[in-house]
Amino acid sequence: MAGLKTIIVLSFILAIGFLLVILSSALWKNYLPLLVVATYVVAPIPNWICGRAANPDDFMESSGSVLIDFGRFLTGFFVVMGIALPSLFAHCALIQYPAMIMSIVGGLLIYGTIISFTMFFQEENEF
């Protein structure tokens, strides 16, 4: 059971992630690294939608596994895109390499916090 300390720690980590992404944009006056925030915020949505749409049955284990796998694929695509996009921008000299590193680390902190929030505060279905 998650308590108040968990909320405070996760909020602090989320704030550090947003700070890193915003600083990666503001320090070099180039706002392309802010796209990382969008990819990491959108990343858990396909997994959540496909998990809800699969409607798993208690008696059949393989019910809707294709839909769940597709949701995981899209989530993985967005996470990899959140890492690859700043790398591509840095390679093309659209952003600086320190901005790339700050953007990737900040984005991973944001995504990790979102996943941690869902894990800690997930409702358990009891019959």
Automatic annotation (TrEMBL):
Keywords in alphabetical order: Membrane, Transmembrane, Transmembrane helix
GO cellular component, one term: Vps55/Vps68 complex
Origin superkingdom: Eukaryota
Pfam families recorded: Vps55
Subcellular location field: Membrane
GO biological process terms, semicolon-separated: late endosome to vacuole transport via multivesicular body sorting pathway
Broad class of the protein's primary localization: membrane
Membrane protein topology class: Multi-pass membrane protein
Bilayer-crossing regions: 7-28, 34-54, 66-89, 95-121
Family per similarity comment: Belongs to the OB-RGRP/VPS55 family.
Protein name: Vacuolar protein sorting 55 superfamily
Species of provenance: Lineolata rhizophorae
